[in-house]
Amino acid sequence: MQIKSIETFAVEIPLKPERRMITALGVHNTSPYVLVRIRTDDGHEGVGEATVMPRWSGETVWGTKALIDKIFTPVLLGCDPHDLQTIENRMERACAHNWFAKAALEMACWDIQGRAANKPVYELLGGAKRPLSVRCRFSMGAYEPERAQKRAAELVAEGFDYIKVKVGGEAAKDIERVRLVREVIGPDRKLMVDANCGWDADTAIYCINKLEDCNLAVVEQPTPDGDYAALARVRKETKPPVMADDICFNLIHAKELIRNECCDIISLYPGKNGGIRKSKEICDYAAAHGVACGIGSNLEWDVATAAMMHLVIGCENIQVEKYPGDILGPDYHQFRIAKNPVSIVGPVTTITDRPGLGIDIDWDLVEKHRYNG
Hints:
- By secondary structure, the chain is an alpha/beta fold.
- 39% of the residues lie in helices and 19% in strands.
């Protein structure tokens, strides 16, 4: 089996008004991402998704499409989609970083493998380690007080019992927002915060300790990308478990986090880590060193969401029972580009045992929403 063709599709889908995201990184109102379709010489087909955000990983929809079309496609044509090591090596030699672009191609290869073998991807990862339904937390934007209170009440009514609040801005406003959400959701539901690198170590320590009475379940990425010492200091000088996310894209980053005792949990997902296999590699390394993993999000569509779910189901150390993840991306958007979308009902996301990633794209709908920005 050999890769015969690779096509890219830049598409834009707006978010539902009530789910538009505000974080320390800015405002997210629409999602311009890239879909990938790989075909093989024996008639198999696989799909992938690059969930790119320039302010987060540095990747853009225009750059990703050009990179795949002009740089990666020439070196991948003729490769066997089962030979992920060769595919990864060729991409690494052709271009540094660009995790989400590489992940889109890699997940399309997993999709082909599963369809060819008539098995879901989680079976290719070693079999299901948990049920096909996963309960998720909800990530709430860094809203003004009145909106934060209203949104928290809505989430409780929708059945969410684990809520993440975005922080990372002005300390007083962040503290006020978290306190208001705690008041609304009550003492029994889980509450965590995510600063998206927005605080320095001093501000993080101050805010987390001031919020001690809010009983934070987890503090996610409180300090800047690359500053392992700051993250380690926050972990040492505060009580809640610390989750690393924006600072960990590859195995080297994970090793540094663990070596420097920076965190209790590492947030993974295929897009950020450059593919399903690389996420699993980090997960297995963390497990061997007694560090838990969780699953993060970049507000994915159905293809990347399915890839995340297969990873979670196939990896025991992604401890979603203790640290629920964000696997709700498609439900943030105004419409779905899958003919058979991932099931999302309130906080519960479910995939099927269909072969591959289990997602069939509505290519006519994709054509109607091509991104021309």
